[in-house]
Write a structure and sequence with these properties.
- This protein has 291 residues and is mostly helical.
- Helices cover 77% and strands 0% of the residues.
- Helix 2 packs across helix 3, helix 2 packs across helix 5 and helix 7 packs antiparallel against helix 12.
- The longest helix is centred in the last third of the chain and has 30 residues.
- It starts with a helix and ends with a helix.
- The model has no long low-confidence stretch (mean pLDDT 80).
Length: 291
């Protein structure tokens, strides 16, 4: 594949896998790891493969400060997002996180020299209208819970983090991914230390195999392909492509968790998908005009 086609494809695959992240998170919660603990356990489960992988082969270039900060921030948003999945409905968490394309487009236009075009307006209109449909028009902030706030904050942090990764010089993806995991775990430390209830030993023991299995075989590959794509795709395009997570997350949770999914959710998911398509078209037009 040429140009941006491979990063686009891997970003979409990663998005579909992100949409199913609620499954290991909820399984760990059922094992007794509540709140932030399930996200921490899943992230810890990636380290047995990410740590050695980061130092295999020839050492790459020294990581730029901007990319390091972007990776640490991205890791923090992952912990926030994972925690939101157990504190609110999966549908609400996924869609509040996916205000990220809005933030990414604004960041590109304000800080990265991108010109605001009719495509930008159209993509954001599609995305925002889709969110309105999925929330069935009920967007009052008074109805937000802690999980909703964490999901929205994660979307903003993700937009900033991926922008920092993209605008930096070429980096060693393996080290960036390890830093992403470390960033998430570091951000979680003050929260877990201040938590009133430490998980019982029985819960930790029961969840160990689940966290290792999903961490090694599922979450580590998701992080690798996502960060690899984020290094090669503009933040807004990356965020819009990741909206494919909405389809896999909303549909799978509706089927398996009996969460609401009717015609408003279906139309909303379609509209957000249209926003992603518009952003891909706009990116291709910009690439052709610059070649």
């Amino acid at each position: 594949m040429q140009g941006n086609n491979l990063p686009v494809l891997t970003a979409i695959i990663g998005a579909v896998m992100w949409g199913l992240l609620w499954l290991p998170i909820r399984l760990l919660e059922e094992a007794g790891l509540h709140g932030i603990w399930s996200s921490v356990a899943l992230t810890l489960g990636t380290l047995p493969i990410l740590a050695p992988l980061a130092f295999m082969g020839k050492p790459g270039p020294a990581l730029a400060r901007k990319a390091v900060f972007g990776a640490l921030l991205t890791g923090t948003t992952i912990i926030l997002y994972g925690t939101s999945l157990v504190l609110t409905d999966v549908v609400r968490a996924v869609l509040l996180f996916y205000m990220a394309p809005v933030w990414s487009t604004i960041i590109e236009c304000v800080f990265m020299g991108r010109r605001w075009t009719r495509y930008s307006t159209l993509a954001l209109l599609f995305s925002f209208t889709g969110v309105v449909f999925i929330f069935r028009g009920n967007l009052a902030l008074t109805d937000w819970n802690t999980g909703d706030i964490l999901a929205a904050a994660a979307g903003l942090g993700w937009a900033i983090g991926t922008a920092l990764i993209f605008t930096g010089p070429p980096q060693d993806t393996r080290k960036l991914v390890l830093l992403t995991a470390i960033g998430g775990l570091s951000a979680a430390i003050p929260v877990v230390l201040s938590a009133p209830d430490f998980p019982p030993v029985e819960a930790i023991s029961a969840a160990t195999s689940t966290s290792l299995g999903f961490g090694l075989l599922y979450f580590a590959p998701v992080l690798l392909i996502t960060i690899w794509s984020a290094q090669r795709l503009p933040p807004a395009l990356m965020s819009f492509l990741l909206t494919a997570e909405i389809i896999s997350g909303v549909v799978s949770s509706a089927i398996m968790l009996d969460e609401p999914f009717g015609w408003p959710e279906a139309i909303g998911a379609l509209l957000v998908g249209c926003g992603a398509v518009v952003e891909v078209i706009a990116q291709n037009k910009r690439a052709r005009s610059q070649s």
